[in-house]
Structures are given as C-alpha cells and as structure tokens.
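User: Structure please.
Assistant: Input sequence and predicted structure:
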Amino acid sequence: GASHEAMKPEGKKKKKKRHFLGSNTHTLGIDDALTRPKKRPRSSDAAAASDSSAARVKNALRSAQLDKRELLLWRKFGYGPSLFRQYYRAQGLVDGDDELEEVEACYSTALPITFRLHATDGRRASSLKARLRQLRDANLVHGLEWMPADEGWQAAAETRDAGRREKLHEAVAEVVDAGTSSGLLARQEAVSMLPVLVLAPHLKPGDRVLDVCAAPGNKTMQLLERVSPPEDGDERGGVRGLVVANDAHPGRVKTLQDAIKRHVRSAREMESLVITCSYGQDIPVPIFDDGIEGYDAVLADVPCSGDGTFRKDPDALRRWHPGGGNALHATQVAVARRMTQLVKPGGHLLYSTCSLNPVEDEAVVAAILKENPEFELVKGAMDVGAPGMRYRPGVSTWKVAEHAFKGQDGTSRFDSDSESESDDEVTLRWYDDYGTAAAAGMPATELSMWPPSQEVAKRMHLERCARLLPHDQDTGGFFIALLRRKAKKKITEGVSDASQKGECARIAAARTAGDLPDPVRPLPPNEMSAIAAQLGLGSSSKKRLWLGVGGAVTLSPRSVSNLTDLGPIAIASAGVVALIPRASVWNEASDAAFPYDLTSAGAEALARASRKRRVRVVPSDLQVMLAARSSGADDPSNTKELVCLTAEEMSEATRQKWRACVDDGQTGAVVLVLVKRGKAEGDPPMVVFSAAGRCSEDGLMLSPEVTAAEASRLLKDLSRVAGTKRNK
C-alpha cells in the first residue's frame, strides 16, 4: 500500500458571493446566518486509535522493504528469482521443478487484456454484446469460459515481455472506449473479477456490503451492480443496497473516486455508494436504523506482498524475499480479525490476496478460524461462483523462512555488513516453530504464521480455500477464501443505545476533520429544512441531505440515510452529489430563492421524491434542449448565455407546467421530467425520465451542471423511453 500522505492545506480562496442561507436572507423566512462548521481537532481517543493503526501499517511496510544496499545486491546478482524458486519449491504448491519452471516461464510473459461487461444491466449492454460477438467471430476477442455468458472477455494479442501493456486492436479499443464511457464496461484483470463472482451467489439486491480495501475500485463497481441492479418501470426505483468502499489512505480514496467517475456509473448505483477513509482494523461496527448490526457481506482484498503480480511488475520478482509476506502477516490478520466483527450472523466474509504465499493466505484464514469458531469456510465456493476456473485447493501445511547471507550465521537479514558484496550469497533460513524464530531474532515473527496441527487443520477444512497459479489459465496469481458466519448471536460493541450512538457520531465528526480535507458532514438543521421545503421532500428524503465537498449537498443512500449509523469513520462521499452552489446568469435576480443547481445524478435521484420544483416536459421539448447541449451549441461553461427554451418555443403542455412553476415562485433549479401513465388503472403517473434544469421568467433551460457527454447519454435514454429521434 501507499504511505499515508499528509494533506496539504488549501490556499486562500475568494469568498463566495453567497452560500445557501449563508448570508442574511428573507426569501425562506430565516434571518440567522448559517456558516459551514469549522473543522475541529480529532478527539484524543480517535486520534490515538488512528495514529496507532498508521504506525503499525507503516512499520510493517518498512520492515518488508530492502535497504538500499540490499536492493543493489538483489538487482545485481538476481537474488529475488533464486529465493522465490527455493521458497516455493519447499512449499509444495506445485508438482516438482518442472511445474515450477512453468510458473516462472508464465511470469516472464505479459498478462492478457481482459474486461467485463455490466453484470446486471443486460438491456443497455445488449448492443455492446452484439459488437463483441462480431469481434469474437473475427478472432479478435474470446469469452472467459468461467464468467457468465458474454460478461467476461479477453482480447487476442501477441505475447510480449512481462510488464509491457498490450495494445488493443483498433476495433476492440473502440468498443472498450464506448463501453467505459457509458458505464457498461471496465478493463479489469481476470483474477481481480473473482472475489465478487465467488461472493455473488450469496448476495441479493438490497444487501449491505463493505469493501474494506477498495482502491482502485473495480471490485466496488462489481458489488454495486449486484446489490443495486436496474429495474425499469418501478415507481419507487426498486430495491437498492449499500456498498461502503473504504481505503486507508486519502490518496487511494481519491484514486477510487476518480476510477468510479471515469467509468460513469449510473445514478442508481452511485446512490448506493459510500466512500470512507479508515484503517481496516479500525472500521466500526455499523448499527442501521432497522436494528441490524453488521454487513451482509465483507470483501477484504488485503494489502499483500503481491508475488502473484509479477507479470505486471517484473521488478517485484527481482526484489522478492519472504520477509515481505512475513512483515505483512500481522496487519493482514488484524484486518481480517476486524472484518469478522463486521459481518452479521449468517453473512459472509471473502478474504483474498494477490499473493501465493501461505503465510499471507492459509495462515491468516487459520488464525481467523481459530479465534472465531462461529465462522466456517464455504465448501465449493469457487465451483459455484466461477465454474470452470482452474484452481488448487488450499494447503494445511507450509513452511516459514527468512533470507540470510551465507557465511553469516546468527545474523538477521538487516545485518548484511559483509565487506565483499560479490562473495555474499543469499539463501533461506527455515524455522520450524515460533519459539525458534523468536529466539533467532527473525523480524516480524508472529505465532499465527505457522500451520496448525493436522487435527485442527482438518477441522478447519483449509482445502476449501482456492489458489490460482498463473500458468493454469493464463492469469495472475491469486488466493481466495470465502467464510460464512454461522452464529446466531448479535455483534456487540457497546454502541447500542441512543446516547452511545450519539457519542460515536461526535467522535466521527471530530475524526473526519483530521482524516480528510473536506469530509461529508451534517447540514445545519435550518438549512436542511429550508432545502427540503424548497424541493417538497418528505421526512425520509429530508434526512438524506448532507453537506459535501465544496458546499455541495449530497443525498445519502436510502439504506443508510443517517450516515452516523456507520459509526466513527471519515466519509469522503456518500450517495450522489445532488445540489451545487449555483452561479447566477444574466436573466436571473441576484437574490434567487434557491441558490443551487441540480446535477444530472441529483435530478434522477430526486425526480420521484420531489413534490416541488418539478416540471413536466413533453419529449420533443426535452429533445431540443438536450440536442443543443450535446452538440456544443449550448455551452454550460458560459452560464451567462445558456440556451433557453422560450415560452413561444414550448409545446402547449410544457408551457402550462412552466407557467405554473413560475407563478408558484419556483424559479431556479428544477427537475425536468417525463411521465407516463401507471401500469394499472388508478395507478399514479410514473416518472420515466428526468434531467436537471432551470426555470426562469424567460423559459426553461438545462442546468449548467449537465455536461455535453451527459446530454448525449440522456438523449439516448430519452429515445429509448419516448421514441424520440434526434433532429439533424
């Protein structure tokens, strides 16, 4: 993992012209000025816990690294491959030297390019699937046989040296780019798809899932597809789950956010996502409004030495030594141990690494099973989740070693003070048990590194774990273990009554200020009420309004409307950013009643919930506005010259709704909606399309927050639901 970087303070910025209710205003009948709460220092308890975890992780990573002199030796004399060969020959993971040579030969080649289609949005992905089948017929791609039909694909390419990126054929690249920009396709390493596939049979729409080490975000997106699938024609928007995507470092949190933004996830999926920043071993137990404590599932793809990734990073093999896995073992156990406390009874924990090392794999699983008898390994998890994928069963015996310089008995690996570099040869020093290793001063020694007795191992069924070797199916190396919590008792952490829950919220608010520069936090109550009144939101939607980055208003997921249910944790984003502090345009008064603009995601999320600031527009009028924005004729960056659909240009039906909105004083941000009759007689009309807009005395226009790319996507959606055709 990356080191925990200190966040630089932001430079001084010009004072904003106004913040909603941030200056004296009479438009909402509120005279007191509400300002953004100042950041408070972390409470001593929260700070101490966070700093302690940071120190543990940093020390583990530091002890796993070679010093400068050792690194020179490793690269000069090729110690890494030699140690790797010695270590894995002794572990018995492969069938003799011949197969070990196959592994090494595979590691010298580049990974194939693989990508996957959206798992649950088959309707929108149908055209992409058709294009991929054509590419398959041309022998440019082929399907991954262990993935659901037409979901996983591999591009045909010439084999190159490891570490070099393959170049996609032009026709394949076109499809991949189109799929990525529409949120329907993602490039992802084949084995990286497996954790969610193995977990998927145990997930259902509406489940709450934690992705504890989420960056760079591919698994998070897979989880969102599973717990919040699209359901067309549902007035309430269907069942939506929750994915809490966490990472320990603000920099990796930013990477996660950027990846999700780049892959253009739907508003429906984004409504189900919360991104947090915490060390895995410090994540609190959530207590949701329905009384459930813990998550339905937890995915822990933990930091590891990465010796399954040599095809992507050949230099990692040149630097390899067993101390890397040894040093990370304690952190891996600590994270996995905490995850067992976050799984609700009957829920599942998936533990995975991109390492082949049993010290990082079966040893961690064994430690967790020993401490938590209410957990058990799920039998046949790989066969059910990824049928046809070749893997090796988990092992119940393994060896623990550390590297040492020959002729320097009694020295640790950091005592490499030989005067003759070229004469020093590195070998492995094996330790039969914890006592011997501790007495010899082996770094990062933990009792749980060594295998349990054969009797205990047999009861644990470690063979139910799965290890993927790279040469078996032309992939990277990987390890997966799926555990189920079978206990009936509740998770207890001493945070059950209201007063204790309130204390968690207080610590969380203090801690977020120390972890993230601009975290999600509660809106001032008067401001929340004012926004809800302007939009006509009910109480359930009102409490989902939170203050986000840069003064934006975010709409938290339905399944965790009260974000303090997640406990004391720093929240980088929650749900969708619905409202942005607005910029004035030439034809609007400076004291507009509602100084926010809706985002596209906000309009989609609020279209059904809002009872005010909602204008019904006929398809042809929507098509005109969207076509102007997508073509570039309507430039959203020039807020003084936004293209306005005037009263004379509107259809009569649209003009009536626009006039009613103006007469009610609802100028400014509005949701432009298209509705259809209910499915049955007597059912209320259904919102089938929405776009973020503005309403003024002069007419209707799109919100400046709607980009040209979003307008193009909305045009396609409009054509699908209303049958409109784009004007030339």
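The radius of gyration is 28 Å.
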